[in-house]
């Protein structure tokens, strides 16, 4: 875990790779819960028999499930002290280069691409790459945008 004392120290790390998080296994239960939450019950995610005979040989996680795991996967990479809050502001670009098959382990790598001053504090663009263990292609690459507000 990389710990930044404040926003100025974080800003000094612009352009740096911040590290990697812990591995997380993608389970069928997790995929099923996501399907229920989103209403996306496409067979490639939830029909075990049909997916086993499909193009990937097993069910695959929804791309948006992989994207939604970013907060979990990044939480052990870095933290900034002295914040009132950090708020997701959006995404600049998201790609899903490789499917994430059930049973795969994924982890995130984070790179601080850009940090700019805004009225409430700083806005950071962090490129998050969700790696799949044993696969040269990532499951997701996303340029996340975070608003970081210092404590009063």
Automatic annotation (TrEMBL):
InterPro entries: HotDog_dom_sf (IPR029069), MaoC-like_dom (IPR002539), NodN-like (IPR039375). Residues 12-130 form the MaoC-like domain. This is Acyl dehydratase. Belongs to the enoyl-CoA hydratase/isomerase family.
